[in-house]
Amino acid sequence: MTRYASVSSCFLMYLSLVLTPPSSHAKGPDATQSTSEVPALRGRAGGAVPMLEWGILGVLVQHPKRDPAQPGQGPQMRGACRARALSREGLQGKPGLPGSVAVSSENPAQKSRDSEYKRNPQIKTHNIRGKEPQSEKSSAGKTFSCVTPAGRYERTQALSAWSVPLPSSQRGGRGGGRQRASPGAAGLCSSADLQTGHPPVPAVGAGSGPEPRPPGAPQSRAGQSRAEPSRTEPSPARQSSAEPSPGPARPGGPEGSARPRPAGASGPRSGPGMGERSAARREDTARRLARFAALRGAAARPGELWDVVVLTAADAAQAGAFREQLAEKLRREQLPRAVRYLVCADPPGPRIGNGGSTLHALRCLEEQYGDQWTSFTVLLIHSGGYSQRLPSASALGKIFTALPLGEPVYQMLELKLAMYIDFPRHMKPGVLVTCSDDIELYSTGVTEAITFDKPGFTALAHPSDLAVGTTHGVFVLDPCSFSGKGGLEYGSCYRFLHKPDVQTMRQSGAVCVRRGHPQLGSPGSCGDSAVASECVYTDSVFYMHHSTAQQLLQFYKQMGTLACEIDAYGDFLQALGPGATPDYTKNTSNVSKVDPGLVAVRQQLYSLLQGTALNVIVLNNSQFYHIGTTQEYLFHFTAESKLRFELGLRPVAFSIFPDSAKTLDQLSIIQSILEPGCVIGPGSVVEYSRIGPEVSVGKGSIVSGSYINFSVDIPSHCFLSSVSVKMTGRVEYVTMVFGVGDDLKKCVKLLSDIHSLQFFGVSLPECLDLWSLEASDQLFSSEGTHLGLWTARIFPVCSSLSESVRMSLNMLNSVQHKSAFKLSGFQLLSVEEMLTYKDVEDMLKFRKQIYYEICLERQKEKSDYRMNGT
Predict the structure, then answer these.
(1) Residues in CB range of 14: below 8 A, 6 or more apart
(2) Dist. CA 248–CA 251, nearest whole Å
(3) How far apart are CA 711 and CA 355, in angstroms?
(4) Alpha-carbon distances of 648 from 144, 182, 245, 288, 404, rounded to whole Å
(5) Which position has the higher pLDDT, 260 or 806?
(6) Which residues lie across from 91 on neighbouring strands?
(7) Peptide linkage before 236 cis (omega within 30 of 0)
(8) Element housing 460 (H / E)
C-alpha cells in the first residue's frame, strides 16, 4: 500500500504541474502577450482549443515529449531573458546603447513626425545641425510581444526547371546608372565578350541532380469570405490551411519560440547543374543563417555583433519609413538587440550618390556618438534611392525587400546581417560598406576566417566572367601576393578599374587564366584559350579602417556642401593602390549625370587618398548576386537559379496556401493569403497580398501589397503594386501597373518625344488616347525635362484597396484590347507622387493583418495536430 500511495502521490503532483495553464509558468516573450495590439486575437487566446490542448488526456500523451516550441526553452529564450534584464535595468533603448534605433536627418521637423516614436523607448530622434541629441525617456521593463504561432509545418514539393531569360533592357546595377549584365545560369551574365574558344570558368562545378523531394499534400480548410478587410483593423481569423504537413509539425514560430531551422540546413547537397562548390556555399550559408537565427531578439556577447548598423535614406520621408519598420522588427524580436540601428537621411538638395551618402553617414555617426564612434565596428548599408527598376520596393525601401525564406520571412536587412555575421569578431574598428540589393554567398575552409584588420581599405573579390567585369569594379592584383590557390587568400591590389572594357582589363593585367588554379596573365596577353578559361576578380563589399574613415570625414567637413553625385566605389577605390593615376577623374563616360563640380571633387579625393593601401580578400568560391530589377527578382526567386539553391529559397514562405489554389511550375509566395480556386502562373511572385478564389495570375508576374477579391485574369509579365496614400487627412489607395519589362527610368525632355515611352509594349500617346487623357505638361509631376512613366499622372486614387487594383487593371485591359477606359474623372497620381504621399503606417498595418492571420492559422494547425495525435 505504501508503494501504491507513493505512486499515487507522484501522479497527483504530476497532474498539478501539467494541468497548470501555460501562462502561469511560461518564461519568455510569449508570457506577456499584448492582446491590445491585436483585438481580433483576444478571444482566441483563452478559448476552448487551448484548454483542450491542456486537457488531462492530451497532457498524459504529450507531456513526456515536451514541445520545443513552448516558451521558456532554447537559447533564444535565454537571449530574450537577457534582453528583458537589460530593459529592467533601464539600459535598453538609451542613446548609444545596444537595442536602440536612432534616426539622423537634416530636416528638424522629422523629429516629431510620429508621436508613436516618442512613446517607444527603442527610438530616439536626432537633428544633426549642430544641436545636441534629443533622447526620449526610457520606459524600463516595457516589452513588446504578440501572439506567437505555436506550430509550423515544412512544405516540400518537387520542382521542375524553369528559367527566365533576362533581356538586355533590364540589366541591373549598383546605382548611378550602373548597368549589370543578365544573371545566366550561375546568377551572373553570359560572357559574350570573351575572346576565347571556351566558355568562362563556371562558378561551380558540374554535379548530379538532387534526390527527389516529396511533394506537399496541403490540407485546406479555407473559408470563402469575400468582404474586403480594412487595412487598419485585423480581420477575423480565417479557417484556411497555411502549408501542408507531410509529417510532424515543425516547432517554433515567428516570435519568442524556437527559431526556424535555416533554409539549406537539410535537403539535397546539390541541385540541377549545381556542383560541389555550390553545395559548399549552401552549407556555409545555412550555418550563418542558423547562427543569426539564434541571435534574433537576443543580446549577444560584446564584440560578437556590430556596434552600429547604419541605413542610408534618400530623404527624411524615406528615413521615417525605415524607422517605423526597424521599430516593428525590434518589437517582434526579429533583429538582434545588442546592436544600435541608425538611419541617416541624405541632406536636402542635389543628389550626392552613394559616395556622398557614405561621407554624410560618417558625419551622422560622429554627431550621434561623439568620438566613441571611432572605436565601433560599423555596418553601413546603402539603402537610399527609389528603386525605379523594382518599384515594389520603392515605398518601403530596398533593404526591406522580402525574401521567400524563414518564418517570419527574412527581408534583405536580416539576410545582410546573417551573411556578415562572422565579420565583426575578426574586424578592427572601422566601417564595412555594402549595398542593399546584392547578396554575396561564399564558402571558406574550416580554419579560414575573413579578417579586416589592415589600415586603409580592404575589399572582397569574387571570380567573374570578363563580361561581368565590364559592369563592375575590377581588381588588378599584385602577382607577388596572389597564388590563386585555396578558398581564401589575402593580397594587395595594384590598381582598381571601374567598369572597364575587355581590352583595358587585358592591357592592365587584370585577367586571370585558369589552369586548375587562377593565375594572373601578363599585361597585354590574351591567355591560352585552347587549354584554359579566363576570369577577373570583381568588387562587392569594402572596409575602411577607422583612421581612413576619419580622414574622409574631415574632408567632408572642410568641403561644406556637396553638390554632385560621387560613387563610393568608382571615386574612392580608383584613387587607391600604387598603380592609381588621376586620369579617371576626368572620365565621365560611366556617369549618368555629370554635375559641374564632379571633376574637381574627384581630384580632391584622389589627392586625399593617393598612396592609401587597397588590400584584397580573394574568395575563390564565392558568388555575387544582384536582385535590383524586376527581371533579376523573378529569375532568382522562381527559376532554378544558383541563388535559390544556395540560399534555400522556398516556393511558399509563411503564407496561407491551400491545395485548391492551382499553381503551375515554379513560383514564389511570400507572406500572403491565397484562397482556394485561384491560379498562380509559373515564374510569378506574390508578396504581402490577398488573392481571392476567382483570380488568375499569368506567368512571370509580380503582385505586391494588393487585395484582389473580384474575378480577374491578370496578364502574364504584369507588375502590380499597391500603395496607401494620405493627401487630405484620410487614407486612400493607388495601384501602379506596368509590364515587368517597362523602363521606368527612361525620360524625355519634350512632349513631342513621349512616343518613345512604352507602357506594356504600347506607346504612351496611344495609351493616353484610350484613357481620354491629354498629353500636356500638367500630365507629368516632374519639372520640365523629366517626362517618363515614373512621373506620368495616370494612376487613379480610390477609396478602397481592392477598388484601386480593379481600376488599374481596367487601364491595362483597355490597352491590351484597344478599348476605351476614361480616366478623366479620377484624381490621378504618378509613381513619384505616390512616394511623396505614401502612408507607411497604413501599409505596415495591412502587412501586420496578414501576419497575425497566418499566426492564428499556425496555432490552429498545431491544435488540430495535437488533437489528432491523441
Answers:
(1) none
(2) 9
(3) 48
(4) 30, 21, 19, 13, 9
(5) 806
(6) none
(7) no
(8) strand 457-464
DSSP state letters, 317-344: HHHHHHHHHHHHHHHTT-S-SSSEEEEE
Q: Which of 163, 158, 88 is nearest to 121 (CA)?
A: 88
Instruction: Calculate helix-pair angle for 546-559, 598-609, nearest 10 degrees.
Output: 140
Q: How far apart (Å, rounded) are the C-alpha atoms in residues 206 and 263? A: 22
CA distance 339 to 660: 44
Q: Helices H, strands E: what count in the chain?
A: 20, 37
Please check whether residue 379 is in contact with residue 432, taking contact to mean a CB–CB distance below 8 angstroms. Answer: yes
Alpha carbon distance 770, 767 (integer Å): 5
pLDDT in tens, 364-390: 999 999 999 999 999 999 999 899 999
C-alpha cell, 770: 484610350
Q: For 682-702, what is the mean pLDDT?
A: 96
Three cell numbers, residue 320: 521615417
Strand (E) positions, 201-322?
A: 250-251, 308-313
Backbone dihedral region of 790: left (phi > 0), alpha (psi from -120 to 50 degrees) or beta? alpha
Taking CA atoms, 159 is separated from 208, 405, 572, 795, in Å, by 15, 16, 44, 37
Rounded-to-integer distance, Cα 285 and Cα 196, Å: 33
Amino acid identity of 846?
A: F
d(CA 280, CA 716): 36
SS (H, E, C) 641-698: CHHHHHHCCCCEECCECCCCCEECCCEEEECCEECCCCEECCCEEEECCEECCCEEEC
| pLDDT tens-digit map of 506-552 | 999 999 886 555 555 544 433 333 334 889 999 999 999 999 999 99
Q: What per-residue string of b and e applies to 625-655 under the rule 16 or more CB within 10 Å gives b?
A: bbbbbbbbbbbbbbbbbbbbbbbbbbbbbbb
CA-closest candidate to residue 686, choices 671, 708, 666: 671
Exposure class string for 310-322: b at 16+ Cβ within 10 A, else e = bbbbbbbbbbbbb
Report pLDDT for 518.
Answer: 59
Q: What is the DSSP string of 486-516?
A: SSEEEEEEEEEEES--HHHHHHHT-PEEEES
Output the CA–CA distances (angstroms, integers) from residue 141 to 122, 147, 464, in the order listed.
12, 19, 51
* Whole-number pLDDT of residue 479: 81
Neighbours of 202 (CB within 10 A): 18
Mean pLDDT of 38-58: 33
Distance CA 724, CA 708 (A): 15
Provide CB contacts within 8 A for 748, sequence distance 6+. 754, 756, 757, 787, 788
pLDDT attached to residue 481: 73
Using DSSP bridges, classify how beta strands 787-788 and 747-748 pair: parallel, antiparallel or unpaired: antiparallel
Q: How far apart are CA 149 and CA 433, in angstroms?
A: 36
Residue 513 or residue 814, greater confidence: 814
Could you tell me which of 682, 812, 648, 840 has the C-alpha nearest to residue 232?
840
Could you tell me if 705 and 392 are in contact, meaning their C-beta atoms sit under 8 angstroms apart? yes
* Nearest alpha-carbon partner for 345 in 379, 321, 377: 321
158: left (phi over 0), alpha (psi -120 to 50) or beta: beta
What number of residues does the chain have? 870
Q: 3-state SS string over 692-745?
A: CCCEEECCCCEEECCEECCCEEECCCEEEEEEEEECCCCEEEEEEEEECCCCCC
How does pLDDT run across 319-348, given as a tens digit for each residue?
A: 999 999 999 999 999 999 889 999 999 999
